[in-house]
Specification:
Blueprint: E1 12-13, E2 20-21, H1 35-67, H2 70-102
Antiparallel strand pairs: 1-2
Length: 103
């Protein structure tokens, strides 16, 4: 051991338990996210946004029902639900692609 650092592959002794071991260096690439993990995170974001659009559609529909415009409330709910469905399906395709990238 040189100073307070051990050389790669050098056996050192633990000062507490007096057992000899070889330190294993951390792999810097292991801490980085793989492209598949990044893709899965993007897919989760798409699904979260789709849930937000469902909530937004229900709120707009409730406000339209309250003001007496039932037809426009139902049309806006349908628009928000269709946007939500498209975003959810895009998220699912991205999840499938992430799973394929992992294999």
């Amino acid at each position: 051991m040189v100073g307070s650092r051990a050389l790669l592959g050098e056996t050192i002794t633990c000062p507490d338990c007096n057992q000899a071991f070889r330190p294993i260096p951390k792999n810097a690439e292991a801490n980085e996210w793989s492209p598949a993990d990044k893709m899965a995170d993007k897919a989760k974001a798409f699904e979260t946004v789709s849930i937000f659009f469902v909530f937004l559609g229900v709120v707009v529909m409730a406000f339209c029902f309250r003001s007496g415009e039932i037809l426009s409330g139902l049309m806006s709910l349908g628009a928000f639900l269709s946007i939500s469905l498209v975003l959810y399906l895009v998220g699912q395709v991205m999840h499938i692609r992430a799973l394929v990238m992992r294999k």
